[in-house]
Amino acid sequence: MLNGEVHDWYRFRLGFSDHLVSDLLADFGASRQSRVLDPFCGTGTVLVECMKQGINCIGVDANPATLFAAQVKTTWRLDSTRVLELLDEVETSYERHFNIRTLAADPTFRYLEQAGFLKRGWIEVEPLLEALAIKHAVQALKTSTKYRRLLVLALLACVIKDGSNLKFGPELYCAKRATAPDVLGGFIDRVETMASDLRVLAAAHSGRATVILGDSRECHRLLTRRSHFDIVICSPPYPAEHDYTRNTRMELAFLEHVVDRATLRTIKSTMIRSHTKGLYSADNDREYVEGEPRVHSLVGRVQTAVNGKTYGFARLYPRIVEEYFGGIVRHLRSLRKVLAPNAVCAYIVGDQSSYLGVHIRTANILAGLAERNGYELVGIRHWRHRWSTSTSRQIDENILILRPSPKNA
After folding, report:
1. What span, in angstroms and rounded, lies between the C-alpha atoms of 402 and 404?
2. Spatial distance between the Cα atoms of 305 and 316, rounded to a whole number of angstroms
3. Rounded distance, CA 111 to CA 109, Å?
4. Using an 8 Å Cβ cutoff, are 114 and 105 in contact?
5. 3-state DSSP: the chain helix, strand, coil percent, rounded to 5?
């Protein structure tokens, strides 16, 4: 019986639990004949749970770092003995790759230094060099890509946990470590755990997972040749001023997806606008919610709160709210084209008060927008309370459950 294997290989700080996914799959009557989609798959929690139940699934995500994690976490046909042999090779060659001049020229080191992350204390130079030496040792291995990728994921996870000064609460911040960094030790422990999990997974009759890099607002284009989906389980970005690329910036740098401002902007441009630092002058998703009374009322309340504010990004708050809900509508319209007539969709979303304390009832607003864009509301389930640091009070996270409306078939 499979249990918690794989999920701890790498976890995203803003993700949801595998137990919630299992409960939703059971509630929706998922079987091995089901076709499941997660259009905001993050690090693959939904996909891993589907595979454990023998269900085929597809995930889409715009963040190359979390998508990389999802791809590795859904690649199970690896020889655990070979993984441990490669770990021994990395340990043996590590010292040989610890050349400060070479490592300081690495694109990851250059970006973290030039972008100011070393100066701000995200990670100290010594553990960074240690991590880069492991990175170079892994790159030098004579083995297939899927084994190298597994080792790279182990490195990404232990850089954050065992090497950096990063903390998440849920916002990213820096704090001096209570213990000395030990990237190599953390890497060894994590790879050994992965090998142990792979031995368990070898006997599993698992489903197949496909992971696609792309903009979820264009689902129908990304999935044009795929079968229509019976079940959708996902958690889109919240309108919470979270920069999801900031929370994975270290990983993006190590994978060399972000090496300068231009590469970072390219990634942000494919994401639903949920924070002001990802807003661009050409954005126009707000057109999808023109004339929507609840969005108009919400934007008015945010604008009232913003009036007279001259600091930071406050003046952009009304627009980001419009762009966020417009982007979700654009996604819902696109998704509707790839759903089976009897499909059921679960959206895990949270209320927010990030914009000067104005309460955004995310699930309720999205329910109304969905009903006007090809869906029926099945219900809104309360999932959990979460503490809001901006208002010092608890706010709700809910599960919005939708079905395609037969009127729009």
Report:
1. 7
2. 12
3. 6
4. no
5. 45, 15, 35
Return the number of other C-beta atoms located less than 10 Å from residue 126's C-beta: 12
The Cα–Cα gap between 250 and 108 comes to 9
pLDDT in tens, 56-110: 999 999 999 999 999 999 999 999 999 999 999 999 999 999 999 999 999 999 9
Query: Cis link prior to 170 (omega < 30° from 0)?
Result: yes
Rounded CA separation 131/118 (Å): 14
**Nearest to 42, CA basis, from 237, 270, 254, 323:** 237
Q: Give the C-alpha separation, 183 to 27, whole Å.
A: 41
> What gap in Å lies between CA 132 and CA 139, rounded to an integer?
10
Cis amide leading into 39 (omega within 30):
no
> Could you report the per-residue pLDDT of 273-314, keeping only the tens digit for each?
999 989 999 999 999 999 999 999 999 999 999 998 877 788
Number of H helices, E strands in the chain: 15, 9
DSSP string for 262-327: HHHHHHHTTS---SGGG--TT--GGGGGTT-HHHHHHHHHHHHHHTT--STTGGGHHHHHHHHHHH
Structural domains of the chain ordered from first start: 7-66+208-408 (3.40.50.150), 80-201 (no CATH)
pTM for this structure?
Answer: 0.94
Structure tokens at 262: 């231009």
